[in-house]
Design brief:
Helix content: 10-25%
Strand content: 25-35%
Mean pLDDT: 82
Number of helices: 1
Distance between the termini: 71 Å
Protein name: Glycosyl hydrolase
InterPro entries: Sialidase_sf (IPR036278), WD40/YVTN_repeat-like_dom_sf (IPR015943)
Order of helices and strands: HEEEEEEEE
Low-confidence stretches: none
Largest sheet: 4 strands, antiparallel
Strand order of the largest sheet: 1-2-3-4
Radius of gyration: 23 Å
Organism: mine drainage metagenome
């Protein structure tokens, strides 16, 4: 390739890259909103991350959410997501396929274990579980 042709190709690419870099917004920490307390951190190279399989909240309560994950159990927040607690640590499996709450009794949590999205790293299910106390204790229901 001739030097003149290289200049025709290189110059627009270099100018375009410079313009995009200068036009890109600078990063700033969030000062408001639900994620204001989170701090970015690099956790290094990883394989497949955690998969959320089910999320449920209660109508009229924007702070209470329960999340089921493919291999990390059941997580609960009572402060709109500022902090989370794993409430399914000591059961037969950590693979969750479905989570639901009774809107009239938000402490009643139902969990279907096992995942419907087969992958090479999925875990087996162990039936349906019920918690009458918001995840403090669990009973098998099938």
């Amino acid at each position: 390739m001739e030097s003149h042709t290289m200049k025709k190709i290189f110059l627009p690419i270099a100018l375009g890259t410079a313009m995009l870099t200068l036009a890109a917004p600078t990063w700033a920490a969030w000062s408001h909103g639900p994620f204001r307390h989170l701090v970015f951190r690099n956790i290094g190279p990883a394989v497949a991350g955690g998969r959320v399989t089910s999320v449920v909240g209660v109508p009229g309560n924007r702070n209470l959410y329960v999340v089921g994950t493919a291999g990390g159990g059941v997580w609960k927040t009572t402060n709109g997501g500022d902090s989370w607690k794993n409430v399914f640590d000591h059961e037969a499996t950590m693979s969750i396929g479905a989570v639901t709450l009774d809107p009239g009794h938000p402490d009643w949590v139902w969990v279907g274990t096992g995942e419907a999205n087969p992958r090479n790293d999925m875990l087996n299910g162990a039936g349906v579980y019920f918690s009458p106390d918001g995840g403090k204790t669990w009973k098998t229901r099938g």
